[in-house]
Amino acid sequence: MTMFTRRDALLTITAGGVAAAAATQALAADVPQPMRGPGFGGTDPGPRNVALDIANPDILNPPPTDSGTLPNLRFAFSDAPMKQYTGGWTRQVTIRELAVSKPIAGVNMRLNAGGVRELHWHKEAEWSFMLSGRARITAVDAQGRNFVDDVGPGDLWYFPSGIPHSIQGLGDDGCEFLLIFDDGSFDEDSTFLLSDWFKHIPPEVMAKNFGVPADTFNKLPDPSKLYIFPAPMPASLAADKAVGVEDVPQIFSHHMTAQDPIKTSGGRAWITDSSIFPISKTVSAALVEVDPGAMRELHWHPNADEWQYYIEGKARMGVFAAHGQSRTFDFSAGDVGYVPFAMGHYIENIGDTPMRFLEVFKSSYFADVSLDQWLALTPPELVEAHLGFSQDFMKALRKKKEPVVG
Ligand code: MN
Ligand code: MN
To answer: For this structure, is 359 an active site residue?
Structure first.
């Protein structure tokens, strides 16, 4: 005999009620439906994630020009595992989260006031964009030359692969920044940590190396307690610079937004590569600000894949992959976007506020090819023979390249 328990009834009623409520909500008038128009698609009564559908209108209702199968080219940091420590937090978007990103991995990190990212090094080079607050960064190169600097919003740093360094949050509220590593397989848990190595060296070897008694190392910290930990606020920048030690010949920091931007009719762009930030030999970038209604023009990059980080506003990007394949993605602040090598693309501001994002490349130099400029500089008869455009269109083609935002 089957016993009918109160618990069975509760589960049955709850599941039924949730499903019915979800279906009602999913068909509410202000909820978008996967219907491009009469005779295309249909309603989605649910189950469905309405918040995600609203955030991604071009996934739910792709433009009719979309076609074929492209890999996923978007990953939200909000979907990345969050790791919390006593001095802040960190999360990463690597090839494990965004499979297409072989050359680049990204990390979003927060250091509270005084919070230190432990002294460490890694196999990959590290490039960073400061999002908010201030940080003290330190490094030493293989020739024993020193680097200490303070960075703030819009500043960059670059630590070549294998160079030991640290980061500490300053001021009342520390800092937040984006880190870029020039290998998509990078893993935050695979960095070489000072405390981890100390823990794995016999005390008598340490004694020999540092010339102190072995019992000096009796109470080493647990490596899991460091990584990002609170520490006293540092002294002034001048006091922290080692006296009598030579500075690194190529400075590891750069004031990106102190550069004069390239100004166009639809926005502004700050481009930084090794031509003006010489140490940054494996990473180049553009910070792009697009006005409401404006667009990062149709273009592609002849040298590298593009890894994007959306800082503010709402955007949509269309990517053309040859062979009749095309796909459209939507982005909000905190999202990562991606464009595989040489694929044509545009990025529109679809919100009513300025939209800002970073284009990052594993390359010593920034380069893009503008569709507009290509056609404008090609004999008009040749372009007309291909596409049959009117004389008006041909006249409208701008003769002068607006390099970034049209
Ligand atoms: Mn690092
Ligand atoms: Mn691009």
So the answer is: yes
